Sequence to fold (269 residues):
Amino acid sequence: MPSRRTPEQMRILVTRPAHQAGPLCRLLRESGFRVLRFPVIGIVWRRLNDDEAVLLRTAAEQELLLFTSVNAVQGFTDLLRDRDLPVPRHLLVAAIGASTAAALHAAGFDQVLAAPPPYTSEALLALPQLRGLEGRPVMLVTGEGGRGLIARQLRQDGVVLKVLPVYRRVLPDTAAEPLRQALAEGDLHLSIVTSGEALANLQRLAGPRAWSRLQELPLLTVSERLAETAKRAGFTASILVTRASDAALVHAVVGWSEQITRGGHAHER
Fold:
């Protein structure tokens, strides 16, 4: 654990996808930290097959659109634009997290629901607006794979659900040497990892020796479920949990660094 370091002496590992890491890295640097960008998930936008293209054209006919991520919003709106289809601004739309809700507002949707804390699929499904939809058409806009909890629960509730996957996650071709060198030199102090898939990919990309060193560093993540996954994966230092927004992540890093600077220890939450 680092002790009595100033922010500019602390280097933070950011594992967000390359096209999404910029704002978080900028906020960290503005707060005085150094950053090592190491994307562990790549996003590939899908080309729709004929059936999916037909499904996209029915978006405006749905009772509700559900979006699981910012990438889902971007992929969906890009597909509409590519086909000269209007954004169905009048529809009720729902998002798991605050960042996804903000992306929906930015895309022009007028009625946006957001899951309350802790910003999970379970929290989204508990919204009263998602009850009483039996027999109603609902579209889930998402990526390939994932937990599948939302789709299973809605179908059990009798919802006429269509799933539109607009992107897929892949293991990127990220060079591991900068990470390994930073770890070997003791020049890395905290890692930010925001999904189980990202954690697994980090292990694959880092290699055994670097992974062993990463397990000894504090970890900042976004759910108790992921914190438990990290513990089972062998992380032994403090594991901090916060919300998934860039601002919340930076606030948590600042709080951690202030405790370290005072010579204390950041407590697991």
